[in-house]
Design a protein that fits this description.
The complex is a heterodimer. Chain A is mainly alpha-helical. Helices cover 66% and strands 3% of the residues of chain A. The relative contact order of chain B is 0.23. The radius of gyration of chain B is 17 Å and the shape is globular. Chain B is 26% helix and 14% strand. Classes of the chains: A mainly alpha, B alpha+beta.
Chain lengths: 337, 197
């Protein structure tokens, strides 16, 4: 019995030797062993995953992305789509306003509508909030447009060195002035959201074209439907700019490189849309409408002007027995007149 | 005229990181800046591959296209370089780069970046060749000395090739033909619009 086991073991060992000596022979056949057989090639990986993600031995995790061909999409967005969209929106809006101004001119009210009595339309804090947001927006708009229009328009005039110096400061300005802008947007939402909720005058106001094209001045509350559109644009687009802007201010804190690209897509497109809207807002608030600028300048407007443009608001004030200034939250200034 | 390119034969790369060390040492690259790195795909699984990656000096380079101050330029050898004097550290080139090549020192609050730094294909920058200013900003200018990038020169398995694109492509294709396999010329399609099959 014991001998039988030994014989079996010897046979097994002999068999192993036979196979071991055959194996190298097989390896010398024309078909070499293929270490890549179970592997996938770069093109396969890219097709399946869209980008190549791996492991690295350094702390900078974003460098574990070996390849993201999406960078090419970012390139074509930044160099083809954005300059065209931005150029058409900004220049198009200026062109439309210029045509409107030359055809219709300034929107005026009849001289006999003026009463000579004043009513407070925006208190000091409201005006402070408006101008803080407005000045920071102008800075952000110019420095923002500089990121992609600067090298096309300014750089040929300034030269590479002076333009780089200006752009460096423009970048700092864009990064720091963003904070008063974000604060301003939040304050404006708190101050004015109540008076910007839709009301029964809005549909008729919009249908009448806001009186911009003649046919009498439609009624409106404290804010007409056009002003409400500006308010909601600033509120919604402003928050979108703030969120994506914070992502760009703190790069890679919550997003990977593709997330950062999307933050830029949203930030730049929303930015040029809001710039176009604000150009229209500036036009209507200054050159476009007689008497409108005083409201944000001194805070007071003529009672007759207010009755013409915001009849429902004036009637509401009269019902409340507030002939004078007490309009808007927290207003405690002296009576008008 | 040569058109300089990198090619990493991933079937030869053993992830020794000698290319990374050579680069850091040759150019005195500061802490936290990675001009070259080795990324391992499918780590620990069948088909694991390591690829040494740096700036690929792309054709129609995305970094140069999106730069708001146009600080990039291409040398006669086809190398994509940039001027640190013009760079404003906006970070756009990192978003555009398919290979994660641009690097920035942290220079201030709100994620403010310093001047961008990246692989120069060992060919310096806009300053005069071999000047102190060139070395401090961009590192050694080996091309002007008639040498190729040190990362590839140091590669122990000759996985990383650097040189004229046509020459290194031919070397790689000969290898693939002789050994019968190859996982591809990593990054070439995205960088140069060639399949590398």
């Amino acid at each position: 019995m014991k001998q039988g086991i030994h014989l079996f073991r010897a046979l097994a060992v002999a068999l192993v030797f036979v196979f071991a000596s055959v194996a190298p022979l097989a390896a010398q056949q024309p078909v070499a062993p293929n270490p890549t057989a179970q592997s996938v090639t770069e093109q396969q990986l890219l097709q399946e995953l869209g980008k190549l993600q791996g492991r690295i031995t350094i702390p900078d995790e974003k460098l574990a992305t070996l390849q993201q061909p999406q960078g090419r999409s970012y390139q074509s967005f930044h160099e083809r789509v954005l300059p065209w969209v931005g150029g058409i929106l900004v220049l198009g809006m200026i062109a439309v306003l210029a045509v409107f101004y030359f055809i219709r001119g300034q929107i005026r009210i009849r001289p006999d509508e003026y009463t000579g009595r004043k009513i407070v339309r925006y208190n000091a804090f409201e005006r402070f909030t408006h101008w803080m947001t407005a000045t920071s927006f102008v800075v952000l708009a110019i420095t923002g447009l500089n990121y992609f229009f600067g090298k096309r328009l300014l750089m040929p005039a300034l030269g590479a060195d002076a333009f780089a110096t200006w752009s460096q400061w423009a970048k700092y300005a864009h990064n720091f002035i963003a904070w008063p802008f974000m604060l301003g947007v939040l304050l404006m939402i708190v101050l004015w959201v109540k008076d910007n909720l839709p009301d029964r005058y809005d549909a008729a106001w919009l249908k009448a074209g806001g009186g911009f094209f003649g046919g009498g001045q439609p009624d409106a509350g404290r804010f007409n439907a056009g002003q409400k559109l500006v308010f909601w644009s600033v509120a919604i687009f402003g928050i979108a700019l703030a969120v994506t802007g914070l992502m760009l201010l703190f790069p890679f804190s919550i997003a990977n490189v593709n997330g950062m690209q999307w933050a830029q897509y949203v930030h730049s497109i929303v930015g040029v849309i809001l710039i176009a809207i604000i150009i229209a807002h500036i036009y209507i608030g200054t050159l476009g409408t007689e008497g409108a600028f005083e409201a944000m300048e001194s805070g007071e407007v003529d009672l007759g002007w207010a009755r013409h443009h915001h009849r429902a608001w004036i009637e509401e004030q009269e019902r409340k027995g507030k002939r004078g200034p007490a309009v808007g939250p927290g207003s405690a200034s002296a009576p008008a007149e | 005229m040569a058109r300089m390119k990198f090619l990493c034969d991933a079937d030869r790369c053993i992830e020794c990181n000698a290319c990374v060390t050579a680069c850091k040492n040759e150019h005195d690259v500061p802490w936290g800046i990675q001009r070259r790195r080795v990324v391992t795909l499918n780590d620990g699984k069948p088909g694991e591959r390591s690829v040494s990656m740096a700036c690929m000096h792309c054709t129609n380079a995305p970094c140069a296209a999106v730069c708001p101050v146009d600080c990039f330029y291409r040398t006669d050898d086809g190398v994509v370089l940039h001027s640190k004097d013009l760079c404003i550290g906006c970070g756009y080139c990192f978003y555009a780069c398919p290979f994660g090549a641009p690097q920035y020192p942290q220079a201030g609050n709100f994620g403010t970046r310093g001047k961008m730094d990246k692989c120069t294909f060992c060919s310096g920058g806009p300053e005069p060749d071999f000047s102190e200013a060139e070395y401090v900003k961009y590192g050694r200018n080996r091309l002007a000395e008639g040498k190729l990038p040190l990362c590839a020169e140091m590669c122990s398995t000759k996985s990383l090739l650097a040189g004229d694109g046509d020459v290194i492509e031919q070397i790689y294709k000969t290898r693939v033909a002789q050994r019968g396999y190859g996982s591809g010329m990593w990054g070439w399609k995205t960088a140069y619009g060639e399949s590398g099959a």
